[in-house]
Amino acid sequence: MSARVRAPELRGRGWLNTGGRDLKLADLRGKIVLADFWTFCCINCLHVLDELRPLEEKYGDVLVVIGVHSPKFEHEKDADALAAAVERYGVHHPVLDDPEMDMWQQYAARAWPTLSVIDPEGYVVATMAGEGHAEGLARLIDELIATHEAKGTLHRGDGPYVPPPAPETALRFPGKAALLPNGNLLVSDSARHSLVEVAPDGETPVRRIGSGERGRADGPGSAATFSEPQGVCLLPTHVAEIAGYDLVVADTVNHLLRGVRLESGEVVTVAGSGRQWRASVDDHAHDALAVDLSSPWDLAWYDDKLIIAMAGIHQLWWFDPIKRTAGMYAGTTVEALRDGPLAEAWMAQPSGLSVSADGTRLWVADSETSAVRYVENGVLGTAVGQGLFDFGHVDGPAESALLQHPLGVCALPDGSVLIADTYNGAVRRFDPVSNQVSTVADGLAEPSDLVLTPSGEVLVVESAAHRLTRLAPGALSAAGASTVDGPRHRTERKPTDVAAGEVTLDIVFTPAPGQKLDETYGPSTRLVVSASPPELLVDGAGTGTELSRRLVLNGEVTAGVLQVTAQAATCDADVEHAACHLTRQDWGVPVRVVDGAVTRLPLVLRGLDA
């Protein structure tokens, strides 16, 4: 290891999962500490939570994971919302609430997620950004165990995690819902890893599909297991008859699609290998059970196929239940907002889908850009939303209206669309004819989906209230809607001062211990650069294979955001059957163009030396 840097003290507004105790680094001396800087809106952060679970289990007597929650959205600064997210996503380690991002600054984090490893003597020995670090972390932890056992500075035993009391509600953080042919509703009971069929009143349970334990087992409804399922979509009758199942479930954390036979409740895996997608982008059809998926979040039948909101890689995918194939439908994996032909458009964590009554338009809740997008005639467009860093609760003309991390959409018969404006706790409506956005209902607890009944009523999946809520009669009429001119927010992180003219962007990448860059199938690295506003970059935008890029910044644009995506393929070194790995990270780097400022901008994709 290189120079030893003392870890900054852990300070914040409060702690979760500690039984009310405030932790200090001195309390953790003798343990290996992994500080996970995360925010609960971020799909990459949710991936890391799942990657860390096996490490927490394997090294439970020596490793303490500390989640440091440094929020992006205004709603995420709310202490109650954070507590709900910690339960929702099964976070079983202490969490420090860092609403002002003080710890983010102290530990020099630049991206969500960032991981910092602290050795048993209290020194930072590794920092890494992004996901895909589990194997590298395991090797590093093994090294630290050997070193500090030899020194006598490693203390084994239980960590400081104290589980909160078990809640008692019929549903727990329901995610999505769908109408069944019998008039009942099927709800994804996400935090309880199952599906619940409820009566038309939206309250009375009829049956549960899934054991309620986290897992990925197929089989009878009472024994099958899921992991934080979300979207549910009925197949057309003729398709279901051939496929052999009636509906498909987005089994989000398992990176799978599951088929369900309604009569028996039997569950079968229909798409996904179970591995998280870490491959190159292509437009080929793949064997559905062999292809890797990444956090499928919602589903809709459109364009004669099942469309998947692939939140984990900022794309839409398709699945053909009859041919049993799957592939990419829209998006490039670049996390940003850009309209255009489906193969060239940019998205950011699409999480909700709904098809217009005439079947011509697919509405998309693009959550991280706080936008409502649509697919029509092979093109992706934007109805409401301005980008990754602009959000709020503002009604009126669509071009100036603002949402905050919407997770659901519901097309109405008149051509308009309802929006589950999740972090604003509201239901909004966009009318394409008038091009206006209005507020239909507010005061809701993280609405995540909407269902239109045959009688014209609207049910809201009120996720953080653990229930389905019926909108008041008349809420969808012009008289029932209101116009809100609420706060406007822009995510403000300390900008990096850079010089006008030529600037070198360097992505610093160090393979994990025991790995090397893998060029078996071509270049092992990829770098994509863009800017908001686009005028910020005179030269240097685009895609290449080198992790260093000459940029030319426009001196007449005083500030903006550089959007950077980097990935590197590695394989195990010096072993007969080497495993392959892909490390990937997206950055939105705020910059300020200042005369005489730096001409080199380094970003760490993976760095195992502090």
TrEMBL record:
InterPro entries recorded: 6-blade_b-propeller_TolB-like (IPR011042), NHL2_NHL_rpt_dom (IPR045302), NHL_repeat (IPR001258), Thioredoxin-like_fold (IPR012336), Thioredoxin-like_sf (IPR036249), Thioredoxin_domain (IPR013766)
Superkingdom in the source lineage: Bacteria
Residue ranges constituting the Thioredoxin domain according to the UniProt record: 1-146
The keyword Ion transport is assigned to this record: no
The keyword Lipid metabolism is annotated on this UniProt entry: no
Alphabetical keyword list: Repeat
Compositionally biased spans, kind Basic and acidic residues: 204-217
Pfam families named in the record: NHL, Thioredoxin_8
Span list, region Disordered: 203-224
Xref: PANTHER family: NHL REPEAT-CONTAINING PROTEIN 2 (PTHR46388:SF2)
Name of the molecule in the record: NHL domain-containing thioredoxin family protein
